[in-house]
Amino acid sequence: MAAQATSPMELALGEAAAAAAAGEAPIGAVVVDAASGEVLAQAHNRTERDNDPSAHAELLAIRAAAAGRGAPRLPDCDLYVTLEPCAMCAAAISFARIRRLYFGAYDTKGGAVEHGPRFFNQATCHHAPEVYGGIEEIRCGELLTEFFQGLRD
Amino acid sequence: MAAQATSPMELALGEAAAAAAAGEAPIGAVVVDAASGEVLAQAHNRTERDNDPSAHAELLAIRAAAAGRGAPRLPDCDLYVTLEPCAMCAAAISFARIRRLYFGAYDTKGGAVEHGPRFFNQATCHHAPEVYGGIEEIRCGELLTEFFQGLRD
Fold first, then answer.
1. Alpha carbon of B106 to those of B26, B57, B85, B141: distances in Å?
2. Is B142 a catalytic residue?
3. Is A121 at the interface with chain B, CB within 8 A?
4. How many Å separate Cα A12 from the centre of its chain?
5. pLDDT tens per residue across span A107-152
6. Model ipTM value
7. How many angstroms separate the CA of residue B120 from the nearest CA in chain A?
8. Closest CA to A86 of A63, A116, A64
9. Do the Cβ atoms of A117 and B115 come within 8 Å?
10. Which helix (H) or strand (E) holds B130?
11. Rounded to the nearest 5°, which phi and psi values hold at A11?
12. Using one digit for the tens of pLDDT, what is the confidence trace for B22-77?
């Protein structure tokens, strides 16, 4: 029996756990070729390690996938991320022409898809992906809750 | 008589002109240490050259300044950019804790400071810089108009 391939959201959760272990906010993202299912890039937050305020999981995964493809746009790709993207990452998803966005936990404080600026609903947003939220919502959220509780202890 | 230092917005305009010459959208950005006036980084759009949808002038300048400082936040720095930032760059400016944002032309189609999501006015925006718009607005805008007219010719 062939081993079952790990789902993109499982890979993203693994990235999020690796981020927590490295002292970074536990958020992971994966970019997948929509037709083949091939994983083009996976990343977790690295803002502290890289001294880069833009080094969110989504931005890093999109940049790596685009560099790998040799194209600044990824219209045939889907993005999986453990947390609702912020405005920076939502706009980058739009610029990259990502086909579908699958995200885990909702982010009432900094999310920009279902909260705050609701970027994809703005008239100034020129490409919106299909959006699927709340995937493995509890596991994605627990990683964040445990991490930030640990920081306060 | 000492030579007068080039102003940050002049440097940003020079970056924008260099972008146009390279076939990139003519937008330039400069990060300055607010106390000393030292230029920490300057950049222009490189989305096509780098195959990176996030390679806007502001993001590149912020990333370079933060890497140079060895810190993911730049609370004592100001950013000059020739065009009103988009949502991606506005959020990155917020994450970087930039003190003041000086921008040139207004961007009714993709701007996110005075248009669209008005990111800094959102309750989910946790740091907003002081904002000064319309600086060298005509020159900044003309570079863009000429570039996009040239693409259509």
1. 14, 16, 9, 8
2. no
3. no
4. 8
5. 999 999 999 999 999 999 999 999 999 999 999 999 999 999 988 7
6. 0.94
7. 10
8. A116
9. no
10. strand B130-132
11. -60, -40
12. 999 999 999 999 999 999 999 999 999 999 999 999 999 999 999 999 999 999 99
